[in-house]
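Our preliminary data section would be incomplete without showing what the modeling component actually yields. Below, a chain of 461 amino acids is followed by its predicted structure, encoded as tokens that our downstream tools consume directly.
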Amino acid sequence: MPVFVHRTHIDAPADEVFAWHGRPGALERLIAPWERIRLLSRTGGIENGARAILELRVGPRRMRWIAEHRDYEEGRRFRDVQIEGPFARWDHLHRVEPEGTSACTLEDRIEYELPGGALGEVIGARFVRRNLERTFAYRHRIIALDVRAHLSARGARGDAPPVTVLVSGAHGFIGSALVPFLTAGGHRVIRLVRRPVQSGGDEVHWDPEAGTIDKASLAGVDAAVHLAGESIASGRWTEDLKQRILRSREKGTRLLSETLARLEPRPRVLLSASAIGYYGNRGDEELREESPFGDGFLAGVCREWEAGTATAEEAGIRVAHLRFGVVLNPAGGALRRMLPPFRAGCGGKLGSGTQYMSWVAREDAIGAAHHVLVNRELEGPVNVVAPEPVTNAEFTRTLAKLLRRPAFLGVPAAALRLALGEMADETLLASARVAPARLGRTGYAFREPVLEQALAHMLGL
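Predicted structure:
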């Protein structure tokens, strides 16, 4: 029977690493972005009898994977066993061994059998082994970095207890990663949702268009992270879509800001999303938080977006505007749209390729948000970008190299303008060379500061 073992030294106490595994959100954090797996439900944590039900896709086929936890030993080990799923047998032991008081070894040991007997072993053994190796390298790195971030923040807060964080856009591209990061760190998250609230969940209903929000359910909120807004990449910018983009940010931000200002006690901090579109198309000029705003539709949207928090600021709430760059992760956003043509060997630079692309890995987008959340000195604009922006041509070469594909089929600027109009000039062809100056000054340690290593990590290469 095949046995797979992966061990990692982690500079964190064993009890902290073990506790992280048992909290809500931990399993979501462990699903690698290239895996076609979705958590459907989870009963309990990791104690004996608790179960997790996942959906995975194998080619066009969808199947359920039901895992049951057994052999739980507080602070040291637990096991999950496949009840239903793709393997003939799957027995996974998680073990945390202390190394003194401030470090530990994390070990995952899996005994498994492939379906199809000897034939299945011949066909699938190498693929499964390689996938396990890259998956658990990813998982252990995420665990080590997450635990370290939460321990560091706890120290910055003077060992304060966990906080309650209100999050809008919790199911979006950034929010869907931020929420499990926070809950696995021991915090409580309340999601602001537009649909009817589900019973038994930490959800609060709001309707920014109608100007309504369930204020009574926000009592006790310590912090808020506002990520909601109409996507700017949902199609060609018609006048109607431009109005929806602007209105969704103006109305939602103003409603949330005014509501938080009226709470007693008020939250201590509001993080409100913005974007580096604030700076407009600026060529190779290095842009910092104090740089003036630029021209164009997106710059105007960002100015109104940030102005919507005025009421919260006037009420004494610390407000920070997270000016996100191009957030990269294969689970969504720009990279997800790029991968199919690049994998097909049809990738290429956009326009001249000389325009700067200020990118940030999604792990650093949520890491930076957490950093701003716990650092009281950070308020006002904060550029959430990696420290090494690249040109579009450099990005194209790097992604093609990692995928081992040619990337000669560039798209002329005229063709982009014909297809997308104003959107092409303000997004794909615009140049913004943005520096994360305030993150750097306050000691944020980037998880993925270099593009090639960042792409390799998130793609499992």
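Residues 164-459 form a domain with the Rossmann fold fold (CATH 3.40.50.720). The mean pLDDT is 93. Preliminary results of this kind motivate Aim 1 of the renewal.
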